[in-house]
Fold each of these.
Amino acid sequence: MSDKKIFLMKDKNIFLIKDKKYIIAGLAFFIALFTFPFWYNSGKAAPGPEIKLTDMAKEAKECVMPTAYMRAEHMQLLDIWRQSVVRNSDNIYVNPSGKAFTMSLSNTCLDCHSNKAEFCDKCHDYASVRPYCFDCHIDKPKEIK
Amino acid sequence: MAGVAVLGIGAKPVLDVLAAGQGEVAGSFKLQKGEGALNAKQWAMVIDTRKVEKASDLEPMISACHKIHNVPQMENKNHEIKWIWEEEYHYAFPTATSRYMNEHAEHIPFLVLCNHCENPPCVRACPTKATFKRESDGIVMMDFHRCIGCRFCMAACPYGARSFNFRDPRPFIKETNKEFPTRMKGVVEKCNYCAERIAVGKLPACVEASNGILTFGDLFDPNSAVRELLKSNFTIRRKQSLGTEPSVYYIV
C-alpha cells in the first residue's frame, strides 16, 4: 500500500473510535423513530367495516356478479360498463348466469344499494379511497338528504 | 397496520377470483343493446321553423331537456350552461343573412343545439378523446369522466354549443332528476341527442315536447322521417360553409 492510503485509513479509524457512541445512539434513535408507527399501532388494527345491505339487496341474494368478484373488482366492472354504454351504446349486461341488467350506476347499482352511507362509504372510508363517482351520480337516499 | 389490514380485505378476494380462473368469471359476460333501442347510422333533426311564432313555442322543449338532464340555471350569465336554447336568425345563421329579409325569419326565435356534425371539429380538438363521434349512431358524445376541462372543444365548436362548469352545478339545479347524473365543476357539457333515451326506445325529450316542430330520424336512411321532410322542403343548416356537416336542418 502506498503511504497515502495508509494515512487515509488511519485517519478514518481515528474518526470512528472518537464518535462511535454518538453514531450508534443516533442510528438507534433514527430506527426507533422510523419504525414508530409500526410498533405503536401493532395489534391495534381497526376491525373491518360491517356493511349493511338494504332489504332489496338482501332479497336479490346475488349482485350482478358473485360477491367476491364485486367486492374486489366492482371498479373494473363499472369501467367496462361506462365504456360500453357511452362509447358503444350497448347498455345491457348479461352476466355469466344469463341474467340481464341495465348498465347504470345511478339506476341499477344505486337502486338496490340505496344506502350509500352504510354500504359504499363504509368500505371506501376504511380503505381510505375517495372515488368521485358521487360528484355526478346521485345516490338515492331513502331517508332525508 | 392499516395498510396490511386493507390488503387483508382487498387482496384475498382477488386471489380467490384468480384461483377460480379470472377469465371464467370476468370473460363470460355479454354486452348488448336493449331490445327496444332505436337504431340509426347518423341521427339527425329537422326543425320546422314555419310552425314557430314566439319564444313560448320553444320554451317547452328547452325546459323538458334541461329538466331531465339536470342542467343548472346559473344566475351569472358568464357561468350559463345550456344544451338547447333560442337564438336570433342573424346570430344562428350569420353566413346566410341579407339586408332585407323575410319578416317571419327575422323575428322568430330559432331553436339551436349541438349539431352532432358529421365532421365535428370539437372531436378533433379534444386531447383526451373525452368527446368523440360515436361510430354506432353518429352522436357526438361526451365521456365526462375523461374531460379535463381544457375547453379546446369550446373554442373549436363554431356553434357555441358547449358550456363549461365554472362552478359546482348541483346547487343550481332546481329539480333534480335522479335517473340522470349531474356534472361536476371543471367539465364541459352539451346536448347528447338524448342518447340515454334512444337506448331505451324513446325519442329525445325536446322532440317529444315539440308538438310537431321537431322531427328526429336517421339521416342515412332514405326512407326515414327526416329524409322525407328534406326531400319535400327547402332547408338550411348553420354555417354550412365551414364543412362540419351539421345534422340539424331548418325548414325556413
Note: Residues 1-31 of chain B form one domain.
Amino acid sequence: MNLLTIVWRELWERKNQLATSFLAVSLGAAAIVAVYNIAYYTELKVNKDMKSLGANVLILPKNSTVSDYYAVDIQGATMADSIVDVITAAGLKGLDNMSPKLTWKTDVGGMSMPITGILPKNEIEAKEIWTGVKAFNPLIKIDEMNLTEAETLARRRYVHELGRDQVFLGADAAKKLDKSKGDTVTIGNRAFTVVSILPSTGTVDDGRIFAHLDTVQELSGKGRVVSVLELMACCSDLQQDLLPKLARLLPDQEIVTINQVIETQVKAGKLMHNLSILFLALMVLVGGASIATYMYANVRDRRREIGTMMALGAQSSVLQQIFLLKAGVLGAAGGVLGYLIGTVLAVFLGPVLAEVPVMPRPELLLLALGVCIVLSLLSSYLPARRAAGLDPFMTLREG
Amino acid sequence: MFECKNVSMHYRVRGSMVEALDGVYLKIEQGESVSVIGPSGSGKSTLLLILGGMLSPTAGEVYFEQENLYRYKPDKRAQIRGANMGFVFQTFNLIPYLSALENVMLPLSLNEYAQKNQREQAVRVLERVELGHRLEHKPNELSIGQQQRVALARMLVTNPRVILADEPTGSLDPETGKNILDFLDELNREEGKTVIMVTHDPAAAERAERRLRIVSGQIVEDDLVVV
C-alpha cells in the first residue's frame, strides 16, 4: 500500500464532501477551455476571411491615395522593387504572404489594357532561402484549400509559379481579346502563352492581363520598380506591432490596412482574451477558496486520524504529502472533467455565439490539467501544513 | 529503556492552568510490564504520550535508550516511534475507510517499508490475532473485540520493542478484555516486549509485574520504589 492508495480510499469514501470544490474547479476549467477553444476557431475564421480578401496591407509609393482597393496600383506612381528584399530580410513575424505588382497600360490587340506584373510565390520563397530568413509562416496553408492557380490569383491575388513568357487573362480581358487557355497573346513584340483564364471577380482585375513582374518591368521600360506591394499579414501580429515595424522599415512608403477587418478581429480577440482572464480570475477566486475551505474542514475532521498516523510514526512530510496528493488528484480529476465539459460547450456554443464551427482541441487538456492541479495544490498548501503541524496530544485527546 | 528526570507538564485549558505531571522521576527497563493507574485527569495518558515522544514536557528530560528524546525534532521522534514503539488506544483509532488489512498495512506504508512485503506481514499478524478471515472488512463491519484485535495487529506489524497501551480494554466486555490482556501478557513474557499500560481497571493493573499510581501528576505509588 502506498500513500496514493490511502488518499484514494479517503476520497472515494467521502466523495460527497468534496463535490462542491470539485464542481467549482471543473466548471472554472470548463469555462477556460470553452473560451480558448472558441477564441482559437474565431481567430482561424477571421484569418480565413482576411485571406479571402487577398492582401490586407498595401505598401504604396508616398502620397498615393486609396480610392479603390483593387485599382490602387493603376495610378502610375512607382517605387523601387528593392523593398521586397528589405521586407524579406527583416524576417517580420506575422507575414503570411507578399505580392509585389507593377501595372502598366499598353495596347494589346488594338485595345488599351492594364498589364500587371506579379512575382510568383516560388520566387519569393527563393528570396527567403537566399537571405536565410523565414519571413512567411502561413497560419492557414493556402495549398490546402485546393484552389487552382487561376482561382488563387483571382481570389488571393498571387500565383505559385509563372514563366516569363506566360500570362493569365482576366475574365473580361479574355472575352475582349477572344482568347482562351493555351492561346497566344502578343504584347509589344513578344508572344505569351495564356496559362489560364481567371474566374470573374467583379473587380477591375477582370480586365487585366497578369504577366511575370520581370517581363512587365522590361516591357514598360520603367526598370526595377513596382506600383504596389500587397502583404498578407496575420491576425494577432497585425494587432500588435507589425504595422509600426513596417512603418519604421519603410519610412518612404504609404502603408494602408483594411481597417474594418482588422478592427473587428482586434475586438473579437480582445473580447476573448478578456473573457479568458475573467474566467481565470473567477476560477482562482471561487475554485481556490472552495478547495482551501474544503481542505481546512477536512484537516479539522481528520484530526484524530492525523494524531493516530503520528502515533504510528508518520513524519510531518508524509502527512503533508497525503493532503497534497489528495489536492493533486482533485485537481487532475477536475481538469479532465473541466476539459470535457468545456469542449462540449465550445462545440455546441461556438456556432451559436461566434458563428464558427468548433472542434475539440486535445492540447487544451494539458492547459486544464495544469491550471487545476496548480490551483488545487496552491489552495491546499496551507491546510496541508496545518495537518503536518498538528499537536498529536491534542488530536488524540479530543476524540 | 525509559528514564524520566523531573518531568513536568503544564498546559492551559480554557484559561486555567492544568498540571498534568509534576516532577516525575521514573525508570522502566526493557521487558518490564508496567500498569499505570490513577483517577481521571491524574496525568496517566499524558505520561504515556510523553514516553511515546508525542508530547514535549514543559520541564525535565525523557530518555529512551540513553537518548534524550526531546532533544530531537518531531520528525526524528516520529522515526524513533515508528521503529520502536506501538500504540494501542481505548477507542482503537482505526481508519474507517481502510479495510482491516489496509489498517494493519498503514504503519508499514507511513514508515516506508517495502511495498512488496507489506501485505504478507500484515496478513501474518492478522492471522495471529485470528482475523485472517476478515482481511477486507472495514472497521464498521467488525465487532468491537475484532476492531481492538485489528488495532493490536496494527501495533504489532512493525514488531515494536515497546507497547504503549492507553486503556486497551476500556471499551470491551470483560471476556474480550481478558483476551486482549492475555495477548499483551504473552507479548511481554514470550517476546520480551516492554508493555506500559494505562488502565482504570484494578484487575487489569494487577496482572502487570509493576504498578504505578499517579495522583495529581505525581507518582504516589510504585511497586519497585518506595515513594
Note: Chain A has a mean pLDDT of 80.
